[in-house]
Amino acid sequence: MAKQIKYTEGYKYQLSEDCLVWIDIRPERACLSNYISLATDGLLIIFRGYAWDGASGPAIDTKNFRRGSLIHDALYQLLREGFLPESAREQADKELRKVCLEDGMSRLRAWWVYHAVRRFGSPAADPKNKRKVLTAP
Q: Nearest Cα to 54, choosing from 67, 38, 35?
């Protein structure tokens, strides 16, 4: 019987069903993490139960940012876990902008979002910054 729990914090949303989307990142080998699959043909599947924090930093977390932040967070997780090379980060940022535009975000705001993640997003994709596993009690 467990006397301790292990968890991570900082999540705001959790998928209640799988999310499938075609993206422009084509890894040499398929990526399979606990909650994320990215095929060599660009099919990204984020599985039910995946948790993410929505828009980061000073960004306003609106509905037209939600799906983009989900996909972007999943791609950055694949970067942190070493499934994707650092060179894929720029394309992950472009995917965020593309999805936000598809979901009705204004071009100006999507431009700001893209440039913000290009300038400040690098630490979130760095393998040194994996979320720490905490314990309680």
A: 67
pLDDT tens profile 56-67: 888 899 999 999
Distance CA 102, CA 123 (A): 27
pLDDT, tens digit, 9 for 90 and up, residues 15-39? 999 999 999 999 999 999 999 999 9
Q: Each residue of 46-56: b (16+ CB within 10 Å) or e?
A: bbeebebebbb
Task: Report in angstroms the alpha-carbon separations of 15 from 12, 25, 36, 49, 67.
Answer: 10, 22, 12, 5, 10
Cα 5 from chain centre: 25
Report the predicted TM-score, pTM, of the whole model to 2 decimal places: 0.91
